[in-house]
Design goal:
Blueprint lengths: L1 E5 L10 E6 L6 E2 L4 E7 L2 E6 L4 E6 L6 E2 L4 E7 L8 H4 L3 H4 L42 H10 L17 H14 L13 H8 L2 E4 L4 E4 L4 H14 L3 E9 L1 H16 L6 H15 L5 E4 L4 E4 L5 E3 L1 E3 L2 E3 L2 E2 L7 H16 L13 E5 L18 E5 L3 E7 L2 E15 L5 H16 L8
Parallel strand pairs: 14-18, 18-19
Antiparallel strand pairs: 1-8, 2-4, 2-7, 3-6, 4-5, 6-8, 9-10, 11-21, 12-13, 14-17, 15-16, 19-21, 20-21
């Protein structure tokens, strides 16, 4: 009996998503709980399981399409007990007795039957792409990785004897491919279909008026980042710069670093800054707010959830640490590295990317003496941290070497004035310069 499978609710405040990958096709038999779809919303990827057993009759969406919860995804010929019934009924499904509409090799419905092994070797860069109806065995996370790298899983040799492709297989293939291919116009085989040329050189090869070029589609994360930046840039923004003398704080950090490390944490300057910023937001509530121009209102948040920008190979992700004001330095030193690692592996849940009232962007590990971070709307301010360095500071009639931390505060000028931003950043600097009131327990 035909049933409808619709996109379920994706969580609070998630009104729209993008179809990232459809993992089944018409004619496939699926089981309840099986991952059938990957959707991308903001900067998270979510795997959608089926709530039905049965055979896919029709697919109503396509990859890259923007959808809303409740939209019809599949029409399914519902079957009860798929995969659990005795061999007798499984061996005689209707599918097997119905003549195929096209000349294709049907996929056996009995999953217990051994899957033929895929080829374990391939010539990289030959432009020859093997065609096969054998299912590609790869978990969703590996499929995502291949998609982000612009690689077709059909081309990736599996190291596992079962034919299952791992992330290591994808990365190894990507490395061989990038090291062995040079984008030179004379090397492109023009009799190869355009879709295969795209895969061979990891981009659509062409020419402009001056020479060879490579055209590459923006990833979903890059598109979402661009959309968010355009929304944020619509607000009038100003950046205020200052420096904090963190000489004493660095001594304190070094003294406590090993103890924190023994508990599984990592004590960085960002941890101290998180704690100080949470206290600053209490004293300067305008910086922990959002603006509603339609209602002509400023909404002051009475909770302190701080987003921390994390640089990943997929793009910029901003996981959120909740209730920073209620957590100790030790707790933050454990939670932040864990969230950052989840971001790099794209394992963040949707709720871990939502609800921030303020953001910190730390480029200290990469260098630079300052930058102008863009406010992450609907927030009204963001703090940037650059690399600290030793500078000669005039004290008591002489110059003394001191460790100085450059800070950059960008703010929405519709809500915050320049004098308020100066006082806010100076309060943060004073707190970092006098760290003895911070508690580790």
């Amino acid at each position: 009996m035909p049933k409808e499978f619709r996109l379920p609710s994706l969580g609070e405040n998630v009104a729209e998503a993008t179809i990232g990958k459809i993992l089944v096709k018409v004619g496939d038999t699926i089981r309840k709980g099986q991952t059938v779809l990957e959707i991308e919303t903001d900067k998270a990827v979510a795997e959608i399981p089926s709530s039905l057993d049965g055979k896919i009759l029709e697919i109503h969406v396509k990859e890259g399409q923007k959808v809303k919860p409740g939209i019809l995804i599949f029409t399914i010929d519902e079957q009860t007990g798929v995969g659990t019934a005795p061999p007798e009924p499984v061996a005689t499904p209707i599918v097997e007795k119905t003549p195929p509409l096209q000349k294709e090799t049907p996929i056996p419905p009995v999953v217990e039957k051994p899957t033929p092994l895929r080829p374990t070797s391939i010539s990289v860069g030959t432009g020859q792409k093997p065609k096969s109806d054998i299912p590609i065995l790869a978990p969703p996370s590996v499929r995502r990785l291949a998609r982000e790298l612009g690689i077709s899983l059909e081309d990736v040799p599996a190291s596992d004897p079962s034919g299952k492709i791992s992330a290591e297989d994808v990365m190894a293939y990507h490395k061989r491919k990038t090291e062995g291919i040079h984008v030179v116009e004379s090397e492109i085989k023009h009799d190869i279909p355009a879709s295969e040329i795209v895969e061979e050189v990891e981009g659509s090869s062409s020419r402009d008026s001056w020479g060879p070029i490579v055209i590459e589609s923006m990833s979903t994360i890059r598109k979402k980042t661009a959309e968010q930046m355009m929304r944020s840039w619509s607000a009038p923004q100003v950046t205020h710069f200052d420096k904090a003398n963190i000489t004493q704080l660095e001594e304190l950090r070094e003294a406590w670093s090993k103890k924190i490390q023994s508990t599984g944490g990592r004590l960085s300057m960002l941890i101290f800054t998180l704690k100080v910023v949470a206290e600053a937001l209490k004293k300067f509530p305008k910086f922990n707010a959002s603006i509603d121009l339609e209602k002509e209102q400023i909404i002051y948040k009475k909770y302190y959830h701080i987003g921390v920008a994390v640089d990943t190979e997929y793009g910029l992700l901003v996981p959120v640490i909740r209730d920073v004001n209620k957590k100790s330095i030790k707790e933050l030193s454990i939670e932040l590295p864990q969230l950052a690692e989840k971001a790099r592996q794209r394992k963040l849940a949707l709720e871990e990317l939502q609800g921030a009232t303020f953001t910190i962007s730390n480029l200290g590990g990469l260098g630079g003496i300052g930058f102008t971070p863009i406010v992450n709307a609907p927030q009204v301010a963001i703090l940037g941290m650059s690399r600290s360095s030793m500078e000669p500071i005039y004290q008591n009639g002489t110059f003394v070497p001191q460790l100085m931390l450059p800070l950059s505060l960008s703010y929405d000028h519709r809500v915050i004035d320049g004098a308020e931003s100066a006082r806010f950043v100076r309060w943060i600097c004073n707190a970092l310069e006098n760290p003895w009131n911070m508690f580790f327990e």
